[in-house]
Amino acid sequence: MDLLGFIIILVKVLVVFAATMLTVLVMIYLERRVSAFMQGRLGPNRVGPQGLLQPIADGIKFMMKEDIVPAGADKPIFILAPAILLIPALMTFAVIPFGSDITLFGRQIPLQVADVNVGILYVLALTSIGVYGIVLAGWSSNSKYSLLGGLRSSAQLISYELAMGLAVVSIILLSGSLKLNDIVADQQGYLFSWNVFKQPLAFIIFLVAVYAETNRLPFDLSEAEQELVGGYHTEYSSIKFAMFFMAEYANMITAAALTVTLFFGGWDFPLVDESSLGILGTVLSVCSFILKMGFFLFLFIWVRWTFPRFRYDQLMKLGWKVMLPLALFNIFITAGYLTVRALV
Amino acid sequence: MPLSLLFYFAALIAVGSAILVVLNRNAVYSAIFLVLCFFSLAMIYLLLEAYFLAVLEIFIYAGAIMVLFLFVVMLLNLGREKALPHFMKFQRALSLMLVILFFFGVSLIMVVGSGELHQPTIKFSSGSVYALGEALFTKFLLPFEVASLLLLVALIGTVYLAKRKI
C-alpha cells in the first residue's frame, strides 16, 4: 500500500469516528429537547444558545464525578464491560457506505472506510459481541438489579437478533451479495427500486428488531426504571456510565445508517445519477444519506415518547412467535419469487 | 513478513487463552478466555483470506453459543474460589498423558509427512461465499442435510425436555 492510500484511509477513519461522536452529542441534546417539546416543556435551554452546549456540560460533569467500584464487584470485568460494549458499537460504522465515489488527487475514493467482502455479516457479528458488555456488566456489579437487567437484556438481544438476521437474508437474496456497496448499487434508479418497496415485510421486522437490539422503548426492559432501578448499569458511575450511554447512542446511529443502507437506497437520491455529476453528485449523495439517517434517528426519539413499554413475556412472545415465523415466511416467498423469475 | 508476525500474534493469544480457560478456577473467567480464543482463531481465518469463516466464527461461536454458556455459568452462581474441587488426581495424570501423546502425534505428522497434509478443497478468496454455498448444495449435499436433520432432532429433544406438558 502506498503512502497516499494509507493517509486517505486514516482520514476516512478519523472523519467517520468524529462524525459518529458528534452525532452522539447532537442526539443526546435532541433526545432531551424533543422529548421536552413533546411533553409541553422547554427542556435544557440555559447552556449556550438554545442549550446547544448542554451535552458538553454533561460530558464534563461525567468526567469530574467520582468513579465508584462497588464492594464485592468483580473489579477487572467491572472495568472491562463498558469498553466491550462501546468498542463494537463504534466499529460497526466502518463498513457502511455514506456517499458515492469521489475523485481526488487523480484517484477514485469510495466513501466507506472498509469495503469488506462479508459486509453485512460483519455488522451482525459485531452487534452480537455487544451482548457481552451487557451480560458482564450485570454480573460483575454484584447486584440483583444489575444481574436481572443484564440477563433480560441479553435474552432479548439474542431473540431479536434472529428475526433481524432473517429479515436481512431476504435483502441478501434480492441483491445476491453480502457487500453493502452492492446492496446500495442494487437500489439505484427510480424511487421504487428501494428495498423498502420490494420488501415491506422485511423492513417492518427489521425496524422492530432494531428497537429491541438498541434497547430502546418500547423494548427497554433491561433498564425498566420502575422495576430494576437502572438495569445493568445501576452500579456504574462517572465516565463508565457515560460509556454505556455513548454505546447506546452509537448503536442507534449505526442502526439508523443500516436501515437506510438496506432499505432506503443508502446514499441514493432518487432519479439522479450521482456518478455523472462529479463532486456535486458526491455532495448530494452524502446529504441525502445524512437526511435519511436523521429521519430514522428522530424516529427513535419519537417512538420513545409515543409507545408504552412491553411486558417481558409479551416481548419474548412477539420475538419468537410472531417476528421469527414472519421473517421465515418472507424468506420463503422471496426465494420462491426468485426461483420462478429465474425459470421464466 | 508482517502477515506472519500477525499470525504468531494470533496464535500466541489463541494458545495462551486456551491454557487460561483450563487453568482458571472461576468459570466466568474461563468462558471469557474461551471467547478471546475464538477471536484469535477468527483472526487466523482472516489471515487465510477465509473472511466468511472468520465472521461465522465470531457470529456463531462467540456471539451465540458462548453467550448461552455464560448465562448458564452465571445462573448456576458458583462461588469465586470454591468453584471446583481439587481431588481428581487420576484425571490429571490421564489428561497429561493424552496431551503429550497428541503433541507427539501432531509433531510427527508435521515432520514426516508434511506434504500429505490436506489442503482446503475450496478456494477461499473473493467469491468465498458463493464457493461455499455451491459446495454445500452439490458435493456435500448429503452431509449437509444429515447435519440439519441432526439439529432438528436436537431441537425437538430440547423442547420435549424443557416442556412439562406437551
Notes on the protein architecture:
By secondary structure, chain A is mainly α. Helix content of chain A is 67%, strand content 3%. Chain A has one domain. Chain A has helices at residues 3-38, 54-64, 75-91, 119-140, 144-175, 180-186, 195-198, 200-213, 225-228, 238-263, 279-304, 312-343; strands at 99-104, 107-111. In chain A, helix 1 crosses helix 10 (238-263), helix 5 (144-175) runs parallel beside helix 12 (312-343) and helix 8 runs antiparallel to helix 12 (312-343). Chain A starts with a helix and ends with a helix. Chain B folds into 2 domains: 1-78, NADH-ubiquinone/plastoquinone oxidoreductase chain 6, subunit NuoJ (Four Helix Bundle (Hemerythrin (Met), subunit A)); 125-166. In chain B, 75% of the residues lie in helices and 0% in strands. Chain B has helices spanning 2-23, 27-47, 51-76, 89-112, 128-137, 141-162. Classes of the chains: A mainly alpha (344), B mainly alpha (166). At the A-B interface, helix 4 and helix 5 of A face helix 2 and helix 3 of B.
Supply the number of helical segments of chain B.
6
**Helical amount of chain A:** 55-70%
Quaternary assembly: heterodimer
Residue windows where pLDDT falls under 50 for at least 5 positions of chain B: none
Encode the helix/strand succession of chain B as letters: HHHHHH
Helix/strand/pairing category of chain A: mainly alpha
C-alpha geometry of chain B: globular
Inertia-based shape of chain A: globular
State the total count of DSSP E strands of chain A.
2
Largest sheet of chain B: none
Proper CATH architecture of the largest domain in chain B: Up-down Bundle
Q: Overall pLDDT of chain B, averaged?
A: 80
- CATH superfamily of the largest domain in chain B, please? NADH-ubiquinone/plastoquinone oxidoreductase chain 6, subunit NuoJ
CATH class of the largest domain in chain B: Mainly Alpha
The fraction of residues assigned to DSSP E strands of chain A is under 5%
